[in-house]
Design brief:
heterodimer; A: Multidrug efflux transporter AcrB transmembrane fold; 2 domains; 4-stranded antiparallel sheet; 15 strands; about 55% helix; elongated; B: alpha+beta; Multidrug efflux transporter AcrB transmembrane fold; Alpha-Beta Plaits; about 70% helix
Chain lengths: ~450, ~300
């Protein structure tokens, strides 16, 4: 297998340049000699391809600061076949609530562990866990409001009113006793005349009676439907509805109608959440950890470069170059992964895993160089020694790295949180390190020793 | 070849004894005291209170009292620079809010920077998962080595390579666990889920190191005609430079992490330092010599029959 080292060499250089470009920090308005006000932003390149996401590291809560809450969904009342739906509706509701909260990049996951249904919520930058739990913990609430009789019937100050209620019902709006809990289910149907999507509500027996009462006393008046503290529709009641069926016509797109129906079902489905676990990491602690890990990583890398150069001279210097390429590649993978649904979140343990994988990458190089030394001692020529060194070191590198991959796969499978992140980073690191040791180092050596 | 005078296999019993000396105290500590498990495993709460200025003992006691006055059991109080860690039974949201308001009222310059509560369910799960992971990883590694060394020439057998690697692995895990049992009992060092990560990394590294030596034995068995102990000894010496260089590199990086990496990962790094050192030792002085002992033992049995 004698591929041209020149071709591979330039390919690796190209790959490295792309990685460097990806890893360039986002800088605004800097001056480089004669060039003034230069904006450096690798993500702008993506935008020309119509990709709206940014090339960034996704930092875990331990580096960013924030709140992580694990809820247990009490799904014992929910029939088994409806469980995934119930859980997903709950997730949708939580997502919407968090968006109201204005959190950037929240992570909301559902998980089933030992038959328990869980919802894990991570809120970067949020340290008021109390507010977060209150916001998330209550189930989606649908309520119905009517016009109050007089000023004296006012229940609360207008500031406690749902958004938009005063505009449709005036200052005396009054909440009725009908709520999402009285809802049996909701579904998306289509208006027979216009063909527009609408939301069909079916009330339970008790709910139907309440609804009948409300519509009876509000004929020719407005009744407002409020979801999550916001008026979503305020139709005029034309006649009393006794069947317990209602329709929200609104002007929805099909997607909007479906989403709303899901949310209503979630509100109607009582899936109480209880807090299993919560962590709050102060922002200063997170940033401090990040700075320190970064420093430690840089120093560690420098130590390796010095050590390798002392031990193996020119070979060591080449290996250090390969290691730099290795680091750039892994960091690029972290950044690129966040453009896909399988984003890698960098945590403290993940950084430890990355540094460990650098150690393993170094080991591969050391294995190879020791073999090269041995071959040279036997009197072989430099280039020949390099080729034989690589092929003889390969079985060790392969077997040892595969055993590490086995360990990381199991860690990923059984681990939770911290351990999972570590395992993923270690596995990626090991895979790239094999590429780095076998392809990058070898190509560099072939290129530099080529006659 | 240099180092020709070094006879590791000949002195194998000495090296086994050295391992025993290191492992035994830790093992006793492990059996007597167990590990000092963090709330990751037991469930409970952990509060970190950071101070702006110097911490006075009085303040810490005051904060402890304000926790106790809410019927919170305080298990341990630890101080490190300007931070104080309180470990308690699970604290509810309400209790925490109350505590934070008390803190800002009565203790100027003190702030709750971290608050964790882990329910007992999650704790039990983490423990179960950790044990499962270690056992499963060991089994799969034995299987992989047995398969990968299947073509190893007689008199060696591939299963022996797998089992010897696992014995070395157990040795390393015991060294780390034992030392942390001692550290936990006398210095209050806790074992958390990050420690599990460290332990599993040590296991991975241990096998990684052992395989490199075994690979050399496999290669030399195919070529040379010497006695089995001689081949093993040669293989150890041939890989010695690599083993030491690699371990030194990794240890240097770990030292950098220890010095500059911050408080959060300190014990994680310590566990790795111990494990990597032990892993290097065991791959050279335990794993390969065990192959020889096994070989001699099975030959004796054959000659008796």
């Amino acid at each position: 297998m004698k591929r041209s080292p020149r071709f591979l060499f330039w390919l690796i250089i190209l790959l490295t340049l792309v990685s460097m470009f990806i890893n360039v920090p986002n800088l605004q308005k800097i001056s480089l000699g004669p060039i003034k006000n230069l904006d450096i932003d690798p993500s702008s390149f993506l935008r020309t391809f119509g990709i709206g996401k940014n090339l960034e590291f996704r930092r875990g809560l331990d580096l960013e600061g924030g709140t992580s809450i694990t809820f247990k969904a009490e799904t014992s009342d929910v029939p088994k076949d409806q469980m995934p739906d119930a859980l997903n509706s709950a997730k949708t509701v939580i997502e919407k609530r968090i968006n109201l909260f204005g959190v950037s990049e929240p992570v909301i996951q559902t998980a089933t562990v030992n038959g328990d249904s869980r919802i894990i919520v991570e809120l970067p930058g949020v340290t008021d866990v109390n507010q977060a739990i209150n916001l998330i913990g209550t189930t989606a609430q649908l309520s119905f409001w009517e016009q109050g009789a007089s000023e004296s019937a006012r229940q609360a100050s207008p500031s406690a009113y749902p958004l938009g209620i005063v505009e449709v019902l005036g200052q005396n709006a009054k909440k009725t006793d009908l709520s999402g809990g009285d809802l049996q289910r909701s579904s998306v149907t289509f208006d027979q005349n216009t063909g527009n999507p609408q939301i069909q509500l079916v009330f339970s027996g008790k709910g139907a009676k309440k609804f009948a009462d409300i519509t009876k006393r509000n004929v020719n008046r407005i009744v407002a439907m409020v979801l999550d503290n916001q008026v979503i529709e305020a139709p005029r009641v034309n006649q009393a509805i006794l069947t317990g069926d209602a329709v929200i016509t609104g002007s929805f797109t099909l997607a909007q109608a479906k989403l709303l129906s899901t949310e209503l079902n979630a509100g109607a489905l009582p899936v109480p959440l209880s807090v299993l676990e919560q962590r709050v990491i102060g922002p200063t602690l997170g940033i401090e950890s990040l700075k320190k890990s970064f420093l430690a990583g840089a120093i560690g890398f420098l130590i390796i470069v010095i050590f390798m150069s002392i031990l193996y001279g020119r070979l060591g210097a080449v290996a250090s170059l390969a290691l730099a390429v290795y680091s750039l590649l892994v960091l690029s993978i972290f950044k690129i992964s966040n453009l896909t649904p399988y984003g890698i979140t960098l945590t403290l343990s993940g950084i430890a895993g990355f540094i460990l994988s650098i150690g393993m990458a170094v080991d591969a190089n050391i294995l190879i160089f020791e073999r090269i030394k041995e071959e040279k001692r036997l009197g072989k020529k430099q280039e020949e020694s390099i080729e034989i060194g690589f092929s003889k070191a390969w079985p060790s590198i392969r077997d040892s790295n595969i055993s590490t991959l086995i360990t990381s796969a199991i860690l990923y499978e059984f681990g939770t949180g911290v351990v999972k992140g570590f395992a993923l980073v270690l596995a990626i690191g090991v895979l790239v390190s094999m590429f780095s040791a076998i392809v990058v180092t070898r190509t560099f050596l072939r290129f530099f020793y080529e006659k | 070849m240099k180092n020709k005078t070094l006879d590791i296999i000949g002195k194998k019993n000495l090296y086994f004894a050295l391992s025993l000396i290191v492992v035994t105290p830790g093992l006793i500590a492990l059996l007597l005291f167990g590990l000092n498990l963090s709330i990751d495993f037991t469930g409970g709460s952990r509060l970190t209170v950071s101070f702006k200025d110097k911490i006075e003992k009085q303040k810490i006691d005051g904060i402890k009292q304000s926790l106790i006055s809410q019927n919170i059991k305080v298990y341990t109080v630890e101080q490190s620079k300007n931070q104080v860690y309180f470990r308690t039974n699970p604290i509810s949201q309400k209790q925490n809010v109350h505590f934070v308001s008390e803190l800002s009222k009565n203790f100027k310059g003190a702030k709750e920077t971290q608050f964790e509560t882990i329910g007992p369910t999650i704790g039990a799960e983490t423990t179960a998962n950790a044990i499962k992971a270690v056992i499963l990883a060991s089994i799969l590694i034995i299987l992989y080595i047995t398969w990968s060394f299947r073509k190893v020439p007689k008199p060696a057998s591939s299963l022996r390579f797998g089992v010897s690697a696992i014995i070395a692995l157990i040795h390393d895990a015991l060294v780390v666990l034992g030392i942390f049992a001692i550290l936990g009992h006398f210095f209050g060092v806790e074992v958390d889920s990050l420690f599990v990560t460290a332990l599993l990394t040590v296991i991975g590294f241990s096998v990684h190191d052992t395989i490199v030596v075994f690979d050399r034995i496999r290669e030399n068995l195919r070529r040379s005609q010497g006695s089995f102990p001689q081949i093993v000894n040669d293989s150890i010496l041939q890989t010695l430079d690599r083993s030491l260089n690699t371990s030194l590199t990794v240890l240097l990086v770990l030292f950098a992490l220890l010095l500059f990496g911050g408080e959060t990962i300190k014990w994680f790094v310590v566990a790795l330092l111990i494990g990597v050192t032990s892993g290097t030792y065991s791959s050279i002085f335990n794993a390969a010599p065990i192959l020889v002992v096994w070989q001699e033992w099975s030959e004796k049995r054959k000659s008796k029959n």
